From TrEMBL, chain A:
PANTHER family: ABC TRANSPORTER PERMEASE PROTEIN YPHD-RELATED, ABC TRANSPORTER PERMEASE PROTEIN YPHD-RELATED-RELATED. It comes from the Bacteria. Pfam families: BPD_transp_2. Signal peptide: none annotated. InterPro entries: ABC_transp_permease. This is ABC transporter permease. It is a multi-pass membrane protein. GO terms for cellular component: plasma membrane. It is found in: Cell membrane. The keyword Transport applies. The chain crosses the membrane at residues 12-30, 69-86, 98-119, 125-144, 175-195, 226-246, 267-293, 305-324. CDD domains: TM_PBP1_transp_AraH_like (cd06579).
TrEMBL record, chain C:
It is a multi-pass membrane protein. GO terms for molecular function: transmembrane transporter activity. One of its GO terms (cellular component) is plasma membrane. It holds the Pfam family BPD_transp_2. The chain crosses the membrane at residues 16-37, 57-87, 121-141, 162-183, 214-231, 243-259, 265-285. It comes from Porcincola intestinalis. It is found in: Cell membrane. This is ABC transporter permease.
Length: 335, 515, 322
């Protein structure tokens, strides 16, 4: 029994991700010894911030049995509108205002998603697609497509606050890690706790597993669905503002298309697309893996123009392996 | 909310002495009546599902509710559990008359129903599945895993189930899921446990374990109602019996008051002998299998059928009865053995092979395997024979319509036309559509797995009549069923399977109904 | 003749679409009559819609089969890039290059279908990754910049016309007829519907589900390849990021056209009406000098409206039945 459990743990989805990360690092490290540097950790963390944030949104929705492809559009609106107001309407130089408005916008579209899915019972993919076009179409029509590249000083101050400053002894370059990296880290911990130790978290798994049974058991299915989409909207608002601060750029299309890689990251991290499965741990590992691959293909000598293809293949393989894993664990039990 | 499932509450002052004499009081009259139904009537849009049903279940008693498919058993359960409010009649629970009962009222009064799908969460662990419903009812905000484990352990100890509490439920076999559902009902203070056809998906060994568990619960004073129609199982477990037929209460009493003949008569309303299928015997062989084997499913199965024969294939779940059907139809092809159709050897490696050799198969699960619920009757009828209508360049719509209309008439499917989606049909008519689908392929061998599950009595008789007609035309008919009376009535040859092997091949003259 | 309920419901849907079309047409007659109702305007509309119209049929086939094809735009661009490259760098004759584009599309679609069918992975996931793979491959082939400046005769495919009727209209109608024929009058077409409405029952009815899945996605891929040719010719440029809004647009079209998102339902006629309706609306916006993005907003709202309308009609039908 115990050895069986140990075996199951060693071949679990998360451990497989750890192996792949290790092997990939080893390969890159052998080709480019410069990889073995603390700077790699900092670079990876910095690059992973956004994917991690988005994955935290998507993960909750998928666990609840839905899917959200509207978060890039919501994010774009959530960072564009505050920046538009600050730059063109009233120079409110206040980080609370910027984040607050971003969250409010996220909340509004999250509620719309929740309404479409939970109340009107529309298929989540289609419903969030609609929200996506309403969000991005609406904001661009009203506010136009500009790009704001100058941050107000309050946001600039956040940009200038670094958590870690590190000078590589090998290259002499300086690497910094912005304080905002704490946001996904803290939220990861909170979500992990929420999913495991609150009825809200268990409820999300429950409705993702069997909606009818959830209703019979007395769970408020609609409320839980709302919670998932609202969370996704709210947190993507925060994430988009972080993007704006770190990238010095707010446009109406900056995040568009990110839903693809985010969904793939969730699935590879063990969040089953059919709902009810997965957790923060796997998603973190999967985001690390994807970020490592994206960041270090250059080091492997793969030309830039081939990188999207390679990442695509990695995602495809990851998805196939995950599905195969799932099927295997189901089959093991039947035996 | 108290979590003290050890003490089964006896709020009406019944002395606990009686409870201390477990095992002695099977169906004892002294035991308090927990549930009493009087003249329950319920109809749906003019269809009388229940026409006056009386029922009495006592504490510490295992009561069996029996009847053919479509007799109103499920409607009755729904009335007891508050899902449907009866049109007429009285429900008394624990000596108190209950009116306008909602599902939550039934649960609060200790009525727990375990449906065939168990309503469990496959993605959660055993412990959570057992404990979570209670936690929700208590409006908990946070999850105390220690408590969850304690509740689960307690529930399992009471029931006598041994499961790994941290095992995800989807990794358990059906019997395990059922145990979890029982544990959950018990930790939620069940006083009456209703199990809807609990043995259909269990193997013989698992059935034994289930009986053991239920007997344990009985000793704890819990009332148990089992919906079942398998006589041998009823003999094994039940203290008393109520038989319904066509929505009507027929008879009720202690199990000792019944014998095979009375049981059959009450169930079907007919004496068995009169209606038995008795074809003219012929030596013209239609179908034969020799030493058919699929490892792990069935082994060395041989039988043969002559013209006019209807062959019944029965046995418990896991005995190989369904597996043979799926094998002959190529879903899970046999590994070895020979199959002869009209004396000619045929090979079956896939569904395509089976269809090419004119084998039709009505699967057990009509809704998920047999029908396209959203498509029209026409589409469903021609689904397996559509290739026959492709002439030259395109499909011949007219021929397809004509064929469907012919079957609609020939099988007297109650539908205004061939165009409504199958979703709108009743169980019996939907099953006739499945049959029409295969008849339209002009099969030489027609295998039906549970042909009358969820079919009302009238349609059931019609379906049997259709099958007899087909057999007379020389089409080989194999009925796979666990409904022994059905087989005895309609088959002139019965193959009884046990643990993957043929245990007995017999005619329909046997009078002992037990397997 | 007896009324068909299945087709009656569909007629209801098409009726709504036609009503919306009439509404747009009348509205535009009132607002911008002379400009809207000019030969030139209708010609410009016809030049626009075939590329995403053909794409939508691909999406339609996959959705009827119970799946979805999010990789269509990737296939389209890969096909376009291959076609352009063959013409420009290898000097392959245009028909052959077009055939290559279609073949590439078929290959990509078959791969999608193979993975979906044999490994039983949701189509959404597979095609999502497929989009990255095919777009990535297109990007890798071009190396980044677009491939421009193909011969005039290639440009003419999507920009030339026969009299005042653009060639692409013929292409579109040709595709429409073939797709409609396949879906309605062939065994495969019916099998796609069966597969989409109940995969297990399809298997138990003797339908080879793997084969049907692969063929459905192959068909979708072929249509992607064809629209790749059209868009490349139209823009006279091939790159990996053309038509990035078309995924959304084609989804919108098929759902608006009455295709059941869960599979198994809907007709080619509905999708065709939906394509035309959206083009009428898009053109109305152009004429009114409304920003392009307003279209996106309106499309989103239309999608929700169409779905809600379906729900309402479904409920009404249920009530009528019971």
């Amino acid at each position: 029994m115990n050895s069986k459990k140990k075996h199951a743990w060693l071949t679990s989805n998360q451990m497989i991700l750890v192996y792949i990360i290790a092997v990939f690092s080893l390969i890159v490290g052998i080709r480019q010894p410069a990889f073995w540097d603390f700077a790699t950790v900092l670079n990876t963390m910095r690059a992973a911030i956004f994917t991690m944030c988005f994955a935290l949104c998507e993960m909750i929705v998928i666990i609840s049995g839905g899917i959200d492809v509207s978060f890039p559009a919501i994010g774009c609106v959530a960072m564009y509108v505050p920046m538009y107001i600050i730059n063109r309407v009233a120079p409110i130089d206040n980080a609370w205002f910027a984040f607050g408005l971003a969250i409010l916008i996220g909340l509004a579209f999250g509620l719309l998603n929740g309404f479409l899915v939970a109340i009107l019972n529309l298929p989540p993919l289609i419903a969030t697609l609609a929200t996506s076009s309403i969000a991005s179409g609406g904001v661009v029509t009203i506010l136009g497509t500009r790009e704001f590249t100058v941050l107000p000083s309050s946001l600039q101050a956040i940009y200038n606050t670094n958590l870690i400053t590190y000078t590589s002894p090998k290259t002499g370059f300086q690497y910094v890690l912005n304080i905002l990296v704490l946001v996904p880290i803290i939220v990861c911990l909170l979500i992990a706790w929420m999913l495991k130790y609150t009825m809200l978290g268990r409820g999300l798994y429950v409705i993702g597993g069997n909606k009818t049974a959830a209703r019979v058991a007395g769970f408020n299915v609609k409320k839980l669905q709302f919670a998932a989409y609202v969370w996704s909207g709210v947190f993507v608002g925060v994430a988009a503002m972080i993007y704006n601060i770190l990238m010095h750029s707010a446009t109406t299309s900056a995040l568009m298309g990110d839903e693809m890689i985010t969904i793939a990251a969730c699935v590879i991290g063990g969040v089953r697309i059919t709902g009810g499965h997965g957790g923060v741990g796997g998603v973190v590992l999967s985001v690390i893996l994807i970020t490592l691959v994206q960041n270090n293909l250059n080091m492997l000598g793969i030309p830039t123009s081939w990188q999207r293809f390679v990442v695509g293949i990695v995602l495809l393989l990851g998805t196939i392996i995950t599905s195969w894993q799932t099927k295997r664990s189901m089959k093991m039990s039947q035996a | 909310m108290s979590l003290k499932p050890h003490t089964v509450q006896k709020p009406y002052g019944v002395s606990s002495v009686k409870k201390e004499r477990p095992g002695q009081n099977m169906g004892n009259e002294e035991n308090k009546v927990f549930l009493k139904l009087k003249g329950i009537k319920k109809s749906f849009g003019g269809v009388h599902a229940l026409r006056g049903v009386d029922l009495e279940i006592r504490e510490g008693e295992i009561h069996c509710l029996a009847g053919e498919n479509g007799c109103g058993k499920s409607t009755l359960i729904k009335a007891i559990s508050g899902v449907h409010e009866p049109d007429e009649g009285e429900i008394w629970i624990n000596g108190e008359k209950v009116e306008h009962m909602k599902p939550i009222d039934a649960i609060n009064r200790g009525i727990q129903v375990i449906y065939q799908d168990f309503a469990v969460f496959p993605n959660l662990t055993v412990a959570e599945n057992i404990a979570l419903n209670g936690e929700v009812k208590d409006r908990k905000k946070f999850v105390n895993w220690k408590e969850i484990h304690q509740i689960a352990e307690r529930g399992m100890a009471q029931v006598g189930a041994e499961l790994d509490p941290d095992m995800p439920l989807e990794q358990l076999p059906v019997a395990g899921k059922q145990m979890v559902a029982i544990c959950r009902a018990i930790v939620n203070d069940a006083k009456l446990l209703i199990l809807d056809e609990p043995t259909t998906a269990l193997t013989e060994k698992e059935v034994g374990k289930l009986w053991e568990v239920l007997r344990g619960l009985k000793k704890k004073g819990i009332a148990i109602m089992i919906v079942n129609h398998k006589l041998d199982e009823i003999y094994q477990i039940a203290d008393s019996l109520t038989i319904l037929r066509n929505g009507k209460y027929i008879s009720s009493g202690k199990i000792s008051e019944y014998n095979d003949a009375r049981f059959m008569k009450d169930m079907t309303g007919r004496d068995l002998v009169e209606t038995k299928y008795d074809p003219e015997l012929s030596d013209e062989e239609v179908f034969r299998v020799d030493h058919l084997t699929l490892k792990g499913r069935f082994e060395d199965v041989s039988f043969s059928m002559n013209k006019g024969d209807i062959l019944g294939l029965t046995g418990l779940l896991g005995s190989g009865r369904g597996e043979i059907g799926e094998a002959l139809f190529g879903i899970t092809p046999p590994e070895s053995g020979d199959i002869y159709m009209n004396g000619k050897k045929i090979e079956i490696h896939s569904v395509a092979d089976a269809i090419k050799n004119k084998i039709g198969y009505v699967p057990e699960d009509r809704l998920t395997q047999g029908l396209f619920m959203e498509r029209s009757i026409e589409d469903n009828t021609i689904a397996s024979s559509i290739r026959d209508y492709f002439h030259g360049m395109s499909l011949n719509e007219k021929e397809m319509r004509e064929a469907s209309e012919r079957w609609l008439k020939d099988l007297s499917i109650a539908a205004p036309s061939i165009d409504p989606p199958v979703r709108t049909l009743s169980g019996g008519n939907a099953q006739k559509v499945v049959i029409a689908k295969w008849l339209n392929t002009h099969p030489r061998l027609f295998i039906l797995n549970g042909p009358t599950v969820g079919v009302d009595v009238g349609a059931k008789a019609e379906i049997h009549e259709i099958l007899r007609g087909l057999a007379k035309q020389g089409i080989g008919i194999i009925i796979i069923s666990d409904d022994l009376p059905e087989l005895l009535q309609n088959c002139n040859k019965i193959v009884i399977m046990n643990k993957g092997k043929v245990r007995l091949v017999t005619d329909n003259k046997i009078d002992k109904l037990s397997l | 003749m007896k009324k068909k309920t299945a087709s009656k419901k569909l007629n209801d849907h098409i009726k709504v679409l036609m009503l919306m079309m009439v509404f747009v047409l009348i509205l535009m007659a009132v607002l911008k009559g002379p400009v809207y109702y000019s030969v030139n305007n209708f010609r410009s509309m016809i030049f626009q819609f075939p590329e995403y119209g053909v794409l939508s049929f691909g999406m339609m086939v996959c959705m009827i089969a119970g799946g979805i094809d999010l990789s269509l735009v990737g296939i389209m661009n890969l096909g376009g890039v291959v076609c352009a490259l063959l013409i420009k760098s290898a000097g392959v004759p245009i028909p052959l290059a077009c055939l290559a584009s279609v073949a590439v599309g078929a290959g990509c679609g078959a791969l999608n279908g193979l993975i979906i069918g044999s490994l039983d992975i949701p189509a959404m996931l597979v095609t999502l990754c497929g989009l990255e793979v095919y777009s990535g491959l297109a990007l890798a082939i071009t190396g980044g910049p677009a491939i421009n400046g193909m011969s005039d005769s290639f440009k003419n495919i999507a920009n030339g016309s026969f009299g005042s009727i653009p060639y692409v209209l013929f292409i579109f109608i040709g595709v429409l007829i073939v797709v409609a024929f396949i879906m309605k009058h062939t065994v495969f077409g019916h099998e796609v519907y069966f597969l989409g409405s109940n995969k297990q029952a399809a298997r138990y009815s003797g339908i080879n589900t793997l084969r049907t899945t692969i063929l459905a996605h192959t068909m979708s891929g072929i249509l992607g390849g064809i629209s790749g040719i059209i868009i490349t010719s139209h823009l006279n440029s091939a790159k990996s990021s053309n038509g990035s809004t078309y995924t959304l647009l084609s989804l919108l079209i098929v759902v608006l056209g009455g295709i059941n998102p869960d599979g198994g339902g809907g007709t080619v006629a509905g999708v065709t009406f939906s394509i035309v309706l959206l083009q009428l609306i898009a053109n109305a916006f152009t004429i009114m000098h409304a920003p392009d993005t307003l279209k996106t907003l309106v499309n989103g709202c239309l999608l929700v409206a169409a779905l809600i309308l379906d729900k309402v009609m479904q409920k009404r039908e249920m009530q009528k039945n019971s």
